[in-house]
Specification:
With 438 residues, this protein is α/β, with parallel strands linked by helices. The chain folds into four domains: 116 residues, N-utilizing Substance Protein B Homolog, Chain A; 32 residues, no CATH class; 59 residues, Alpha-Beta Plaits, CATH 3.30.70.1170; 222 residues, Vaccinia Virus protein VP39 (Rossmann fold, 3-Layer(aba) Sandwich). Strands 5, 6, 7, 8, 9, 10, 11 and 12 form an eight-stranded mixed β-sheet that branches. A four-stranded antiparallel β-sheet has the order 2-3-1-4. Helix 4 packs across helix 5. The structure holds S-adenosylmethionine (SAM). The site of S-adenosylmethionine (SAM) has 16 residues, from helix 14 and helix 17.
């Protein structure tokens, strides 16, 4: 397929997505199934165009003054790919499988339209209903933060220190041109190109467990928990085990890490990942109906991590379709789940132990507001300052990312060049005796 044919195909996929509210990956899969002649490189090129269009959906439509799939794609070629009107016109020749030639109006818009008068949610490519929430989180920077969330993310890898050093991993992956991540001492970064990312599963360094894909902010969230060798740690929302694996590395396989998730299916990938990583101190606890499978951990944990279910706003660079599918009802639901999880987690934290609340959201309601509500309801818990948290993890530089809205540390593509994450550590200062009273 030609680059022009890729654009026509991407427009078809965008048309499908406009009709049916579903994940882009599903629509792309269906397109591939009904166009068997397209090879894997073609499908990757089409996916990349579709994701770029979704990243820049609002600004592309504003530029074009229309919301059709074609207008969205044309606008995104300019906004996401930086192509000028002549380059876009050359691709839209109308020949064979290329899109139809540009109309005079399309030409003009691609040449001269600007975002100067566009509202913040258009300049920042986020849903209009989140306008107030973005303004609350970022003030005058709302559009800039949104725009940073609408860029492509690099491929970040976490080096598994159970298997080797960052230098060794860099040497093993030198053909991919990795660089050390600026903030995480155990990360490598491969800058994003326009095509397919590196075929990681084929890399020996991956197969042998020396590296795992994990965004730098997610690495930092794990490191900020400062799990120490010998500790008892509960990862209450372990999912596929991304954070659990990072914590196991910090613990040098000493002590015990319990990985639990309310949805047992989500835990499935963890077993294979543990094996590959050589992590031997993780016990996976599957939910079993109504049974309390964590009862033996009550009051025993040095660290409880809540990697909470959230809107995922901070991960929009990697899942640009998610931002347009996010509905207000989903936010309300996540807020309830988060508050319930904080209450659920308390019983496991031993006196003097830490509770780490983490989300990959940037919305204040899911972060600072949740923490504040928890602290007022539970005066035995006190939040560590950003400085204490950063210094405790041996990463004092991270204190500069202290949330401007209260407790915790906030990372974002615009400020730390990472995914968006929020981390707040709280200490249980309840005396042992009172704990025994229940
Ligand atoms: C952000 S994801 C976890 C990602 C994972 N920690 C990682 O690093 O790969 C949130 C997880 O919380 C789980 N979850 C939601 N409500 C829960 C609850 N009440 N108790 C335990 N887990 C819950 C979800 O099933 C989901 O897997």
């Amino acid at each position: 397929m030609t680059p022009a044919a890729h654009i026509s195909a991407a427009i078809e996929v965008l048309a499908d997505l406009a009709q049916r509210r579903r994940p882009a990956a599903e629509a792309l899969k269906d397109w591939g199934a009904s166009h068997r002649f397209a090879g894997s490189k073609d499908r990757a090129a089409i996916a990349s165009l579709v994701f770029d269009a979704l990243r820049k959906l609002s600004s592309a439509r504003w530029i074009m003054g229309a919301e059709t799939p074609r207008a969205t794609m044309l606008g995104a070629l300019r906004e996401a790919r930086g192509l000028d009107v002549d380059a876009i016109a050359a691709l839209c020749s109308g020949e064979r499988h290329a899109p139809a030639p540009l109309t005079e109006e399309e030409r003009q818009r691609l040449d001269t339209a600007t975002l100067a008068d566009a509202p913040a949610h258009v300049r920042g490519d986020y849903p209009e209903w989140l306008t107030e929430r973005f303004a609350a989180a970022f003030g005058v920077q709302a559009a800039a933060e949104g725009a940073a969330l609408a860029t492509r993310a690099p491929v970040d890898l976490r080096v598994n220190i159970l298997k080797g050093s960052r230098e060794q991993a860099m040497a093993k992956l030198s053909h991919l041109n990795p660089s050390p991540t600026p903030l995480s001492p155990i990360g490598l970064r491969i800058e994003a190109g326009q095509g397919r990312g590196p075929a990681l599963p084929a890399e020996t360094a991956y197969v042998k467990g020396l590296v795992e894909p994990q965004d730098e902010a997610s690495q930092l969230a794990s490191l900020l928990c400062a799990a120490a060798p010998g500790e008892q740690v509960l990862d209450l929302c372990a999912g596929g085990g991304g954070k659990a694996l990072a914590l196991a590395g910090q613990m040098h396989n000493r002590g015990q890490l319990y990985a639990y998730d309310a949805d047992g299916r989500r835990l499935m990938p963890i077993h294979e990942r543990l094996e590959r990583a050589g992590a031997r101190n993780i016990q996976v606890r599957q939910p079993k109906g109504k049974a309390d499978v964590l009862s033996d951990l009550a009051g025993r944990c040095d660290l409880v991590l809540i990697d909470a279910p959230c809107t995922g706003v901070g991960a929009w660079r990697r899942h640009p379709d998610a931002k347009w599918r996010l509905a207000p009802g989903a936010l309300e639901l996540r807020l309830k789940e988060q508050a319930a999880l904080l209450e659920q987690a308390l019983r496991f934290v031993k006196p003097g132990g830490r509770l780490a609340y983490v989300t990959c959201s940037l919305l204040i309601d899911e972060n600072e507001v949740q923490v504040e509500a928890f602290l007022s309801a539970n005066p035995d818990f006190a939040a560590l300052s950003a400085q204490e948290t950063a210094e405790g993890a041996g990463l004092p530089d991270l204190a500069r990312f202290a949330s401007p809205h209260g407790r915790g540390i906030r990372l974002s593509p615009a400020t730390s060049r990472t995914d968006g994450f929020y981390v707040c550590l709280m200490r249980n200062s309840r005396p042992f005796s009172r704990f025994a009273e229940g």
